[in-house]
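Cont'd.
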Amino acid sequence: MTVDETTTLGRRDRKKQQTRAALAAAALRLVAERGLDQVTVEEISEAVDVSARTFFNYFPTKDDALVGDSEGDRDRVLRALAAVPTEQPALEALHRAFTEVVEDMQGDAELWQLRLRVVTQHPVLLARLVTGNATTERALIEAIAARTRLSADDAYPALVVAVAGAALRAAMIRWAAGGGGRLTALLDESFAAVAAGLPDPRTG
Amino acid sequence: MTVDETTTLGRRDRKKQQTRAALAAAALRLVAERGLDQVTVEEISEAVDVSARTFFNYFPTKDDALVGDSEGDRDRVLRALAAVPTEQPALEALHRAFTEVVEDMQGDAELWQLRLRVVTQHPVLLARLVTGNATTERALIEAIAARTRLSADDAYPALVVAVAGAALRAAMIRWAAGGGGRLTALLDESFAAVAAGLPDPRTG
DNA sequence: ATAAAACTTTGCAGAGAGTGCATCTTTGGC
DNA sequence: GCCAAAGATGCACTCTCTGCAAAGTTTTAT
């Protein structure tokens, strides 16, 4: 309404993506400032100048506006995993698949670091971000089972996926805290430590 | 009201514990039957014959009635960890600490398997059960940092705690699915695999 | 045994999340 | 310019969760 250019330049879908991004950004900014419970959907919507009802047309939940596009992430990880040669050990394959996604995060560093900071401050969200995305985890388990020629009910695929997810999460949190350097480097370190069996730093 | 014995035998706190357990059990049973969103707090409370308002005096959230007493679990794990000699490698120390808690679960097998089944069917809850309990994770990280003489901001403590938690979660889910045998045995397997660096089953 | 103190339960009012439905507006195709 | 499809919106409604005040009950002191 306020800007004619966007309406002229963009077509429908363009504007939709724009609104979506604006809602996510506003949600993130407001929650970072005030905390999760001190921000209502009404306020987020107002900041973007849409109705509260419209917010729910874009995101099923307030939380969903904060954690990002987990469906898109899932697809990307699965495609990346499929691209890794089957001969590669399962753990290494997951490492490579995660690396792709993580490189994208590095590209959007500010957004992602803000998101990760918000998320670590509100554990309810943390769950949904990586581990909590049960659908992704399930899909990864099946992909690993297929490539190791094990049953999806076997212990190994579930374990290696859970542990790899933990390694990813640890790297991301560390990155957001500003501890290390590049996210990919932190991810490499995490996976290297896991592959070595997490030797105690005092002895190993 | 219906039973005089309980009122006579138990004093205030006894009755409170009773109500609390009854609410948790009713919640679990109803959600197992119908699904998380098909059960209201009102119905859970009615099943125990208290008001809905009272439910919220016991649990801050509907979810909390389902996932169990995470505070108690936290204390137990931390105490168990403190009892493990400092010389033990961090991963092994966590293994032993978890073993204690897990033995209690085996004692209450029916309750816990029901709980785990409910929880795996509703990923929102999964998060809160293990990984989601950020406070426990934070406390464990600090405990591990202290015993390894590292900073709590170091990468290692966070990583080993996250991975150990993943191993625990994988074992519990497998146990609830009826896959293996005793939970402690499954936990041992998980930790053994992690300590070995999760070698690909095809090569290792 | 009784009264005061402490605690629990409960009802009520209200904010906020989330959903279904009907309506209105915008946009793209013709 | 006009029509059909899609998006935005308002409205009514359910459910979760909180604060507050009014009972009711148990414990403690006397």
